[in-house]
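>> received
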Amino acid sequence: MALTVVSGSGHTWRLTEPIGTGSEGIVYGVDDARPLVAKLVPAPPDPAAYRRRIARLVRQRREPRAVRLVSTTPTRVAWPLAGVRAGGPGADGVDGYVMADMRHAHQPFAHLLTPEARARLLPDATWATALAASLSLARLVADLHVEGYVVGDLKPDNLWVDALGRVGIADVDSWQFTDGGEVFPGRMGSPGHTAPERIGAPAGTAPDRASDEFVLAVLVHQLLMCGLHPFAGHPASGGGYLSYDDNVLHRRCRLLDRTSVILPRSAPPVDLLPRRLAALFRAAFGGVRPAASAWAEALAAEADPARLRTCRRNPLHVHTAERPWCPWCDLAERGADGYPAPRPRQEHALPDSRAPHDAKGPQEPQGAGDPSNTTDATDATGRKGKAG
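>> returned
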């Protein structure tokens, strides 16, 4: 028997296959002419409060602050369209909501973070695409903050991206917001994407804009550094690797202290980052966190085509103009090409491996980047491995 859900107005939808699960709910396809999905939350901590939260979000969709967020093409926010219930009234019923299906115009955000997924699913993506996605994400978070929303559980699993780097977000029901003087607190957090002040905090500790800004910086770092988490690495002190969160709490971050962690030579070098962005990362992880709008401004400047260079050997090797030689070719020589060529090159290779790779810029000695590239280390999860 097909599962059906009904809205408060009596509209019925037939659900199809389950397409995803999260910490609280299950997402199903919806049999409808429009691209829709439904999220059902079987056991929220307070079912009545959850229904009230969804009802307020559905109403807010008609308010100017939400209209400014959802009236874009493609859709940036999978906003609740209608609260629904499965299984009828009473304790046996399951609450949820219907929303836009982000798969209609996007792919999971994680597809942009690893070379394997990019090569298969976003074959034309380059570092310029990662910059575009970083900019789109920063603008989205900035716009949410302006309108009074705090994401709280900002993470790759809640994000979507298209081939042009345009980012969208789902799981609106976990956001923190105010409606009519009532505060609906953020309820969620995820390991590896939680600000230090929220790690280990008592249950129910509310997020704020600053906690979103910390995680935004983590996600931008992952986008620009080929998926590398900024707090990845084995503790250089000799202690065992526990988790990203443990490294966050102990400020083990290559950008803050190059001697605090050990990374494999296959890790992208620090000088892959433009100096302006590296300074923002250091502030985000060890100082006064830049606002999402500050990230958007800096990323827009770095995404200017005049600030980018394309490798002559591989058209997918794009990097900042501040980098005088191609970092992706350096990594490819270590067996870790972040943006492998879409097809084998037909022309003869340059006779000297140290010959310039780029259309512009002077040549410097190869390997003059981050010292961690020459260190035997562990992989990004902390497991022991042989470098390079």
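>> The CA atoms of residues 351 and 357 lie 12 Å apart.
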